[in-house]
Amino acid sequence: MNIESVFPASGSEGVPVGAAVFVIFDEEIDPTTVERAFIMTGPDSDRWAGSGLQLFDRPTTPDPEYFLDSPDYTGVVQGTFEVKKLDSAGNEVDDATYGYGTPAAYRSKVVFTPDDMLSATTEYTIIVSGDELDTDDLKVGIASRTVYDVQLGTNTGDGEVIVTGGYDGAIEDVYVIQITTPGDIGTAKYRWYKTSDPLTVRTGTTRTNEVLLDDNVYLSFSGSNFDTDDSFRISLRPPTYMSGSYSWSFQTGSGAIQAVPSSTSTSVLGDVGAASVDTTPFAVEETVPDHLTSQVSLDTHEITIDFSDDLDPDTITQDTVIVAVHPVRGAFTGNATEDIGEIPKVLEVSGSRLTIRI
């Protein structure tokens, strides 16, 4: 298993602060191995530093409740993962995969979306780990897909089974689930066995909460109206791990553009991957004053934002557009509730321009 392409590419500069990160593998992977093997780090996660505990204003790093929670080390970016299936042309598909090699052309795309916007003009590093030592018994990192989609028999009922987990058995196997007593969840009963050991049969009652079958594979049921002899097959394959680990870095832009551009991605090996976006996204093109501008005149009472396309006036409201005041470098005088927070504004839309009067 190898990494086929990534976004942002290694060494990229000016990456939008709202960009999601993705990695494409050359085969399907086990989704349960992603969170423990994918890490994105940014600069120091602290807002407090120095003997005097000076406060720095970093919007993407919330103020810790306790000083000891600010340990002065590189911060891990928090976010969510989504694993998508791609066909040989790079298109996202929902087609089922019933077993290894059927078809083998499917690949996995792991999309990591940070919980907050990335910081502007900041370097971030991504690490995707695999098994760095093939000769030991400790297996870690991204693994190939181990639990495949549920294959139905000649079922007459509408009930479904859900299988989760990462199979850690030593052989390729198939779990077979058969309904023995019809009914809805809670009434219908089932039996199940492995094709590698068909004489060992276990039984149970359908339920919505997960039940451990074997080898870290879990079963639950959904829907209703299970009929006698309805059957479900799940193919399982021992995991194979990506050999070695990869890391690469990129730098964000000024923050004026927050959408992902329609540029191509490259792999960590330098190969060109598929285009990440086929069309020009709706985005902010220009702001006055410019993003992160300092020493702006106190007489400035108007902000203009030009977008790449005309705005829908109905979407420009007091709730969707917020003007907030924050202290420069964390320094302010007087009452904090008076110096920090949202301030009133008047909104005006003209084509692709939003004018904010404060």
Structure, explained:
The protein is an all-beta fold. It folds into 3 domains: 3-140 and 241-275, Immunoglobulin-like (Sandwich), CATH 2.60.40.3710; 151-236, no CATH class; 284-357, no CATH class. 1% of the residues lie in helices and 37% in strands. It contains 1 helix and 26 strands. The protein has one helix spanning 336-339, and strands spanning 3-7, 21-25, 38-44, 48-49, 54-55, 74-76, 79-86, 107-114, 123-128, 151-152, 160-165, 173-181, 189-194, 197-205, 211-214, 217-222, 231-236, 246-251, 264-266, 272-275, 284-288, 302-307, 324-325, 341-342, 346-350, 353-357. The chain has a 5-stranded antiparallel β-sheet with strand order 10-17-12-13-14, with no helix packed on it. Strands 1-2-8-7 form a 4-stranded antiparallel β-sheet, with no helix packed on it. Strands 6-3-9-18 form a 4-stranded antiparallel β-sheet, with no helix packed on it. Strand 12 and strand 13 (189-194) form a beta hairpin. The model is unreliable at 45-61, 64-73 and 268-279 (pLDDT under 50).
Point out poorly predicted stretches. Answer: 45-61, 64-73, 268-279
Question: What is the CATH topology assignment of the largest domain?
Answer: Immunoglobulin-like
Q: What is the strand arrangement across the widest sheet?
A: 10-17-12-13-14
Distance between the termini: 55 Å
Q: Given the structure, what is the number of helices? A: 1
